[in-house]
Amino acid sequence: MEKGKRKVALLAIAAVVAATGCSQANYGNANEPNQGTATTTDGGTSGENATVKLSVASMPKYPPNEIPNDYVKEVEKRFGMQWDFESIPLTAGIEKYNVMFASGDYPDFIPNMNNPTSVKKWASSGYLLPIGDYIDRLPNYRKLFSDEDWELLLSYGSSNGKLYMLPSVASSDPMTWIYRKDAFDKAGIASFPATMDELYESAKKLKEAYPDSVPIGVRGGTENGGVKNLMNGFRQAFRNPQNSNTRGFWNDPDEGGKVVWNLASAKPAIC
User: With 0-12 CB in 10 A as exposed, 13-18 as middle and 19+ as buried, what is 10?
Assistant: First the structure.
């Protein structure tokens, strides 16, 4: 296979990526042709239970402290893989991938891609593996969708009649509060706060129990974007979601995640 047309598996979910990798022959890296067998950890080759070596590039939201990190190590351990992992800074943008493809020096595998337009372009150029052809090897992923939803996904996510990426499934609002129950238990907090006053008291208790920690962490830190994300989180959690992003619409957990408009709801906003 010519170097410029070596196929890449482009997926969105780490578990699916690993399952697919284990079911395929090793694709090698940009400088090694596909040998049809996986390379074992001792340098030999085997058709069964061999370590699958892949070059992987991804754009984490936050730079990893080390490579391989716990995420990479866990995928490698669970699925018998060995990743040559490259972390691409968000500041590099999608242009980094474009340069990699244009040069012919691109990875076997790209997890966590969030740019459907670029996916279509790379697929049309012949760089991507039509992963949709192997759905029968991913039964757990396919079960996430009803037949109707799967057809809808194909109509929106396909390129030239083929599926080149595996979209993730999001059934709830992404502005969701996540907390450490073990930390709450240690701080003597019985349940997640229901009001702003309770939130303030909980934050104080967490600071007392963990003096070196920040009680509330948010993407974006203390910069303007972080403050905006924090306020949006407050609006979502405490029933005051009217802002330039939500326009008053949100997924109400008391309504089974149904999208509601706060101005048409009988529930009072908590400020």
Answer: buried
Task: Note the pLDDT of residue 99.
Answer: 93
Q: Which residues are registered as beta bridge partners of 83?
A: 54
Residues 100 and 37: beta-carbon distance below 8 Å:
no
Question: What does the pLDDT look like over 73-85, one tens digit per residue?
Answer: 999 999 999 999 9
Terminal-residue alpha carbon distance, the chain: 61
Burial class (CB in 10 A: 0-12, 13-18, 19+), 40: middle
Distance set, CA 105 to CA 42, 92, 126 (Å): 26, 16, 14
* Helix 14-23, helix 70-79: angle, nearest 10: 40
The set of long-range contacts for 99-103, using a CB threshold of 8 Å and a minimum separation of 24, is 100/57, 101/125, 101/127
- Tell me which of 48 and 105 has the higher pLDDT: 105
Cβ neighbours, 10 Å, residue 248:
15
> DSSP labels for 65-104?
SSSS-HHHHHHHHHHTEEEEEEEPPGGGTTHHHHHHHHHT
| SS3 state of residue 178 | coil
Contact of 83 with 110, CB cutoff 8 Å: no
Calpha distance 236→246 (Å, rounded) = 9
CA distance 139 to 23: 12
Q: Where are the beta strands (DSSP E) in the chain?
A: 9-10, 38-39, 45-46, 52-58, 81-87, 109-110, 158-159, 162-163, 249-252, 258-261
Cα 210 to Cα 235: distance, rounded to the nearest angstrom: 26
User: Model-level pTM?
Assistant: 0.55
